[in-house]
UniProtKB/TrEMBL annotation:
InterPro entries: RsmC/RlmG, SAM-dependent_MTases_sf, Small_mtfrase_dom. This is Methyltransferase. It comes from the Bacteria. CDD domains: AdoMet_MTases. Keywords: Methyltransferase, Transferase. The lineage of its organism: Bacteria, Bacillati, Actinomycetota, Actinomycetes, Micromonosporales. Pfam families: MTS. GO terms for molecular function: methyltransferase activity. It comes from Dactylosporangium roseum. The keyword Transferase applies. GO terms for biological process: methylation. Residues 29-197 form the Methyltransferase small domain.
Amino acid sequence: MSGEHYFSADPAVAHERHQVEFAALDQEFRLVSASGVFSSTRLDPGTAVLLDKAPLPGPETTGALLDLGCGYGPITAVLAAAAPRATVYAIDVNQRALDLVRENAAALGVADRVVVSTPDEVPPTVGFTQIWSNPPIRIGKTELHALLLRWLPRLAPDGVAWLVVAKNLGGDSLRRWLVEQGFQVERHASQKGFRIFSVRKPGDARTDAALNL
C-alpha cells in the first residue's frame, strides 16, 4: 500500500477488512482493521515497542488521554483498558480509521470512554494528562513539527507524552528538535531500532529517573 493512503482523509484503496491480534496488559486484544489505514494487517513494530516499554497509565489515572494519529486504535484500546477512570481521545485525519476505532471501542465495551474525532473536532479547552503517539513521520518534517507543536503544548502542567520513533527515520534528530523548542525530553528506552521518548512541557523539570520510570 502506498504510504499516502493512511494519512489521507478518505483512502482510495479498496476496503479490505483484517483482524489484528496482540497482547498487552496480560490480555489479548483482537481488533478490526482495514486496508487504507496505517499497518492494517499487524500491530506496527513501533507501536508494539511503545506499548511494551513505556509505562502505561494505571487504574488511578484520571483526566483525558490522547492517542495522536490513532489509526484503527490499538493504543486507544490499551489505554482505555489500563485507565478505566480516564477518557481517551482518539484522533486521526483518516475517516476509515476513525470508523474502525468506533467499532473496536464498542466491541471492547469502552465506547463510553473513548472520544473519536478528527483533530479539528477536539475542543480547544481540553488538556491531556498523557499523550501517546507513533507519529506519522512520513508526512514530512514540516508537517510533523507542526503536528507536535499543535498538541504537545496541550499537556497538563504535570503531563507527559510518550512518543516512539524509528532511529533510522530520524528519532535522534527529532529529540534534538524537541529540546530546541524547550521541551523536556528523555530517551526512556530503545528496542529493535526504535526510540521511546518521554516529553514534558517547558518548565516541568521532572525526569524519568526522578519518577523511577
